[in-house]
Amino acid sequence: MRKNRVAIASKNSAKITAVSNVFKNLEWAVDLSAVDAESEVSAQPFSQQETRQGAVNRAKNALGDQDFAIGLEGGVYEVEEILYLCNWGALATQDGRLITAAGAQIPLPEEIAAGLRSGTELGTIMDDYANESGIRHHKGAIGILTDGLVNRGEMFGHVVKLLIGQYQRDGD
Ligand SMILES: O=P(O)(O)OP(=O)(O)OP(=O)(O)OC[C@H]1O[C@@H](n2cnc3c(O)ncnc32)[C@H](O)[C@@H]1O
Ligand SMILES: [Mg+2]
Fold it and tell me: What's the pTM value of the predicted model, to 2 decimals?
């Protein structure tokens, strides 16, 4: 069986684990490399469009000579004065295809939203809020806000499945 060469456009361990677990569960043989790729959007995207664009740019910028690359981006957007966390993914292939998908969205308490509006990144706010460190690398904001029922890796795992499923259906 051919071994796919895949790039994941982040060094964040929640994202890397999410991608490698999906391939493991699918029993796909992959050679996975984690690369720092520019999102070319703000460190803290503030709309669905900007978050999606960050995922797309990461995937394209991580591709290099790999078979395909996956970009995952977290962001926030506002509906009726409530800030929601949103999560986007993109898969870019060597033959020029681009596949996108989005994942879970959950409202952020006003206390957290206020920090974001004043320009602090969510990762920093969450660590202060929960009095822990490196939350973005494991349970994530979503883990804190769901009382541990859904962590960041599981949430991104779902996004990765949405990407790989479309890629597979498309006749990888
Ligand atoms: O190294 P990268 O891949 O950039 O990983 P990251 O943790 O910074 O993740 P993103 O850039 O995709 O997320 C954009 C911002 O939102 C924060 N963020 C998003 N989702 C989060 C979560 O579930 N928990 C904590 N921080 C989160 C993150 O720290 C960034 O400030
Ligand atoms: Mg980031």
Answer: 0.94
